[in-house]
Specification:
Blueprint (H helix, E strand, L loop, with lengths): L12 E5 L8 H14 L4 E5 L5 H5 L11 H5 L4 H4 L1 E2 L5 E4 L5 H7 L9 H7 L7 E5 L6 H9 L2 E7 L8 H14 L5 E8 L6 H14 L12 H5 L7 H4 L4 H17 L26 H4 L24 H6 L1
The protein binds adenosine-5'-triphosphate (ATP) and magnesium ion.
């Protein structure tokens, strides 16, 4: 903000995608939301902070050829040297190499170990509107680095059994990071993924998540879509693989909604500099503390999705499964 607190000049809004539960759609959401934000004209950097490297391969990076990746950058290499382009215009990636698997242990004894990613991104985040960090399925040091570097955390939740399992632990970790490392960290949104409208279970899980997380849950729901699972095999975000598919439409809707939440609007007067977040009681689903966590944008910047931008109707469900 400027001296009068009226103009937001923050660049590179950093969003960490986190959920220690495996296979819930963290990578799929980071990759496809990133591509859709880029399609909307935003400059986006995707950071692969997972040794599995799915975000890297998902945008066409051949990991065998990567010389400098997130591991090297955390160890002090120049961040700019590690960034490469992707098939999606406006979307760059900081890929990971297998070496990142060792970082969790090697960082343990490092000085300021939780702030390595934040420090590494400082030099490049000004080049981007959004920096999206894909985390591994754990609450270890890599995920803590992602949360420490982030302005907001986005939690993908799969609309399946046990969806809420472990979320209390994730929320406690977020709270701990907020208290000790990154007071500005906001809940940027909860994204419902792999929604299968043919099952009652998906409806029930979505309703339960909305009950616990309230307005933090994005209106846009990501349907289960074969196209979304096929696209990474071609090294492309779904909008380049099958731009008309339901998965592509859903991530486009999510991107528009996310912009409404995350993007500062310079023209709007803002209140004074935000104060560090007040200590909040430890949150644990289904406690309502969860729903009261701020949603990632400065006051007054949230908007509801326009009609038709919410959940993507599942009219093509059967056909797409049949493809
Ligand atoms: N909406 C969807 N419809 C169908 N398949 C999906 C969808 N979202 C993700 N998938 C598939 O589900 C699997 C898990 O998704 P993804 O890799 O995004 O989860 P993750 O949370 O990043 O997993 P991990 O915890 O291992 O990093 C992948 O094979 C992905 O292609
Ligand atoms: Mg992943």
């Amino acid at each position: 903000m400027d001296a009068e607190g009226l103009t937001e000049i923050r660049a590179g809004h950093v969003v960490a995608f986190a959920n220690q539960k495996g296979g819930v759609g963290k990578t799929t959401t980071a990759v496809n939301l990133g591509a859709c934000l880029a399609e909307l004209g935003r400059r986006v950097l995707l950071v692969d902070l997972d040794p599995q490297g799915n975000a890297s391969t998902g945008v066409g990076v051949d990991r065998a050829t990567v010389k400098i990746g997130t591991y090297e950058v955390l160890a002090g290499s120049n961040t700019g040297d590690a960034i490469v382009g992707t098939p999606a215009a406006g979307l760059d990636v900081l890929p990971s190499t297998l070496d990142l698997a060792g970082a969790e242990i090697e960082l343990t004894s490092a000085f300021a170990r939780e702030g390595k990613l934040r420090a590494a991104l400082a030099a490049v985040r000004g080049r981007y509107d959004f920096v999206l960090v894909d985390s591994p399925p754990s609450l270890g040091l890599l995920t803590v680095n992602a949360l420490t570097a982030a302005d907001a955390v986005c939690v993908p939740i799969q609309c399946e059994y046990y969806a809420l399992e472990g979320l209390g632990q994730l929320l406690r970790t977020i709270e701990l990071v907020r208290e000790s490392l990154n007071p500005q960290l906001a809940l940027g949104g909860v994204a419902l993924t792999m929604f299968d409208a043919r099952t009652k279970l998906a409806e029930q899980v979505a309703a339960e998540v909305r009950l616990h997380f309230g307005g933090a849950v994005f209106e846009s729901v990501i349907p289960r879509s074969v196209r979304l699972s096929e696209a990474p095999g071609f090294g492309k975000p779904v909008i380049l693989y099958d731009g008309a598919s339901r998965g592509a439409q859903a991530y486009r809707a999510l991107a528009r909604e996310a912009l409404g939440r995350w993007e500062p609007r310079p023209a709007e007067p803002r209140p004074a500099e935000p104060q560090p977040a007040e200590p909040q009681p430890a949150a644990e689903p289904p406690e309502n503390a969860v729903a009261s966590v701020a949603c990632g944008a400065a006051p007054g910047t949230r908007e509801s999705p326009a009609p038709g931008e919410g959940s993507v109707p599942d009219t093509e469900g059967e056909q797409e499964w049949a493809k």
